[in-house]
Amino acid sequence: MTETITKKLTRKDFQSDQEVRWCPGCGDYAILAAVQKYMADTGTDPANTVFVSGIGCSSRFPYYMNTYGFHTIHGRAPAVATGVKTANPELDVWLVTGDGDALSIGGNHLAHILRRNLNVNILLFNNEIYGLTKGQYSPTSPVGTRKKSTPMGSIDRPFNPISFALGANATFAARTIDIDAKHMASIFAAAAAHKGTSFIEIMQNCVIFNKDFYNDTVSKPVRADMTVTLTPGEKVLYGKDKDKGLKITKDGVVKCSAEEADVWDPTNESAGAAFAYSYLDSQPDMPQPLGVFRAVESTIYEEGVNAQVEDAIAKKGAGELKDLVYAGERWKIG
Amino acid sequence: MTTTQPSGAELPLQQIDRVVIRFAGDSGDGMQITGNQFTLTSALVGNDLATLPDFPAEIRAPVGTRPGVSGFQIQFSSSDIHTPGDAPDVLIAMNPAALAVNIKDLKSGGTVVVNTGNFKDTDLKKAKCDTNPLEDGSLDGYRVIPIDINARVLEALADSELSTKDKARCKNFYTLGLMYWVYSRPLEPTMNWLADKFAKKPELVDANQTALQAGYNAGDIQELFQGQYSVPKTEELPAGEYRNIMGNQAVAMGLVAGAQLAHLKPVLGSYPITPASTILEELAAFKHYGVVTIQAEDEIAAICAAIGASFAGCLGITSTSGPGMALKGEAMGLAISTELPLVIVDIQRAGPSTGMPTKVEQSDLLMAVFGRNGDAPMPVIAISRPSDAFELTIEACRIAVQYMTPVILLSDNFIANGAEPWCLPDLSTFKDFPVTFTTEKEGHQTYQRNEIGSRPWVKPGTPGMEFRIGGLEKSTDGNISYDADNHQSMTEQRFQKVANVANSVPTPAIDGPDSGDLLVLGWGSTVGILTQGVIDARKDGANVSRIHLTHVWPLPNGLDEIFGRFKAILVPEMNMGQMTRLLRSELPSHNFISYPKVTGQPFLTTEIAGKIKDILKG
Ligand code: SF4
Question: Of these four, A25, B40, B195, B321, which has the most CB atoms within 10 Å of its CB?
Answer without folding.
Answer: B321
